Protein 1
Amino acid sequence: MQRLGLNVGGYRGERIDPQWVQAESRSAAVRNGWTVDFLPPDSLLRMAFHRPGKTVGAPNFYLSAGIHGDEPAGPLAVLRLLEEDRWPDANLWVIPCLNPQGFERNTRENLMGIDLNRDFLSPGSMEVRGQIEWLGHLPRLDLVLMFHEDWEANGFYCYELNDERRLPLAESIVEAVSSICPIEHHTEIEGRTVDRPGIIRPGSDPASRPLWPEAIWLAVNKSKLSCTLEAPSDWSLPVRVDALVAAARSAFHSFFQTPRGD
């Protein structure tokens, strides 16, 4: 398998229609018993889906995608998961596309030029303010997954924040993805030392982060266990979607195989 060689100076690959993806996601969600909500402000038409678990005491899982408008595999992976409907027994909250205006312009940032995934400490964007308002109504989350891509990457990798004294999830995630696409082999990714191939455990100390991504806000306010899943954008879009779907399924499976913290 070889990279496409399209991404020079930025993402130059396939694009998606965010409204189509959200409409298809809604159809699949409603068909399979999910309720539909909208993140504030309503004018952005950003959908969120919820479905309760089957058993009392089921864990709370959250999955988001599409916070960067040049990362199309994430929303398509959410659509695939909703269509296949093979979710674990958990209380589920899923957002397929956090930045539809970015996808319309094929830019990482929103319409105002703000990188939403660096805006969670002192939000200047209506998207992040609205998302934080919506998240405030959710309970504590036992597992958070965030779908991303990296147009410069040589392979898939994963950021894991894990303060729950659980066995890690990242190793099983990387193993599951390795049969689908290459794993990032560099020992440093975006200035962070790699724990092992394809795995970064950066720590969740908010004081060390002048610009908060979604993962840090969630670590401070909602969950001690999260994985940011990064597909390599210079491989074909179907491969990236397959990688993210496999990563999510592995995370769900591993969660139920590992002991809970005290």
Protein 2
Amino acid sequence: MNKYENTVTESDKNVDTFKIASKIRDLAISHNKLFEESIPLIASENLLSPLAKEMLITDFHSRYAEGLPKERYYEGNRFVDEVELEAIELAKKLFNVDFADVRPTSGTVANLAVLKAFAKHGDKIATVSLDDGAHISTAEFGAFGVRGVNPVFMPFNRDEMNIDIDNTKKVILNEKPNIVLFGLSLFLFPPPIKELADTIKEVGAMGWYDGAHVLGLIAGGKFQDPLHEGCNVLSASTHKTFPGPQHGILLASGMEENQYKKLRSGAFPGVTSNHHLHAMASLAITLVEEIEFGKKYAEAMINNAKALGESLYNKNFKVLCPDKEFTESHTIAINVHDLGGGEICAKKLEESGIIVNKNMLPGDKSAKHPDGIRIGTPEITRLGMNKSDMNIIAEFIKRILIDGIAPSIIKKEITDFKRSHNKISYCFYEGENPYKYYRLV
């Protein structure tokens, strides 16, 4: 039989395909219900506002717009062009930068665009190792491997959960990397960009910041300002502390025009074709909302993370960095080795209605069986929870992981608590239940 020949049999044709489609729809509704009834504590997830979500079901979803606004390879883009130009100007205003590109379709794609623009095969890039909290983009099996660059690991102070400044200066001077990358997946504290800026300049390297996790904190002026502290380019996803769609963004300042052109070319045609116009429009809405609400939202996320860390610590959890108030971001990390490890604890919590992720801690050898769990406050803060709610959540976690309360006993309490916090905030049109998706109920 020719390999291209249709192999569908008559019995296959009798399958009720509509039932399969209905099943998929039912699974989507069940997923919505799971989160409507659970406390979401994933540090890398967030919720769209009603207005931003609406953009995802517009006709933008069905269209192509390769190239730059006003210079497209497709017709029918005059309204797309206006939206994209607005998004670019909004991003430049919000982050006080000279350059913005809203075409990357994810944070990793944004990272690949930077690598395409500024790194050659065999170049050295200074970064943090995976077990010290780096993102998988920096691994050989990630974006670094795709581009064929070589990581040079910056020494990490595991007690401080941050880059070791003095020893990193020595590494930069000895290795002379082409790029120094600041960015983490376990992002508790601002990395020391200012302290390393002169050393980076001395070896002629570029400063690059992966702000995927903390973009919303940067937008709200509550973390650090990497593009005015010594970095040249910032790449990020737009759906973590920044409460937008699953998309990406590139920001830059203080570079020459030919470098901006390289960055644009890295985005397209380098690593994207069409840039998911519905998500780009949703990003534009989120940029507007962040200009309006971002400062208060960022402050609330950090306050909630500190309060949750303190409450868990007082309940005998091994929360990292108690001497530094646990975090300066939206994230806390807990060593649960003595409670069975990150994998077991994360599963127990999910069964009970609390969703976290297992996470490597410094010194861990396995990403599948780490000692840690990572907890974040973007989504619960978006739902209006405040510092007083953090003690309630901490008590739930204690009863599950330390007291050993069975999921069947505690789950209803957690569901009732969550259902009283299902109204989205820090956006236009506050109050809609974010888990009730269009056409699904």
Protein 3
Amino acid sequence: MPNTLIIYSSTDGHTKTICRRLTNFLKDGNEIKIIPLDEAKKFKLSEFKKIIIGASIRYGKHSKELYKFVDLNKDVLNQKQSVFFSVNVVARKPEKSMPETNPYIKKFLKTSNWKPKKIGVFAGKVDYPNYGFFDKYIIKLIMFITNGPTDTSQSYEFTDWSKVDEFAQELSLSC
């Protein structure tokens, strides 16, 4: 049985990519299982030593399913070496790139009442060419309002992969 469970809640797959990147640093003698949030209810969380949850933001919110999952499993999560990170485009701005300053992290932790042992936040990706019509133009509007890129013919990845790697290295040492 793996001793680390990584659960991701991802709208377009970028959070899953970050979760896979974390495994490069966590494999040192550890067995790791990566699963989407909708499969997490099939697993007994108490059997894992470390539980990492990564979640993306869409239209300013983490998914309702994430809140439900955390609420149902809060006791186990608070007893384990639990980790949470959020992936959101607002984290592209230096003043919102830390857990203490990121509005989505602050709101999630306050609302969920979960106390992860370690918290991270990473800037995400805007992938206009792969969005449907509605998402493309709503996200373009949001980017316009927040001074982000609005050329819908391109993708924009804001993830600082060295920050992801540093976070993963800290996880491998501290949790």
Protein 4
Amino acid sequence: MAINHNGDVAVVLDSQHRTPGNLRAFVQASIRSIRTGKSSDVRFSSTERIEVVPLTARKMEFSYKDGDDYVFSDSETFETVTLSPEIVGDSKNYLVENSPVTVTFVNDKAVQVELPASVVLTVADAPEGIRGDSANNVQKTVALETGISVQAPLFIKTGEKIKIDTRTGKYMERA
């Protein structure tokens, strides 16, 4: 969700409701300002009024990387949006050409990129498994086409496609 905080629109990254022993309840939230891009922790009392700013989410596809920036296109209108590495964040580890994502907008400004629960990536480099090293569920480190490394079973070879969980960054299965 997005809120209006101190005259600035901010995206709520995380929130927790806390009730310490003999004190009043409050909400601890991590927010990121859309204008400055800075994150901060704020505390709201349970009686405080907060103005919620409407969010819009659009299905888009990752097109290409332009220098440090990432370019996404709307699959219906073919409109393109260029996002900075700060907005893309750790999602860049799972982006390949034409991969579907959901981009969240506040006041027509992109604020967040959401990946699907899993993505299929190609193994760029997988060392050979050591013979006889298969006692029980032994794993090896393989490099993927996006540059990240994950733990995968010994039978995975270079050039194969594997499914990766984007929330945990772990190997799921062959694709």
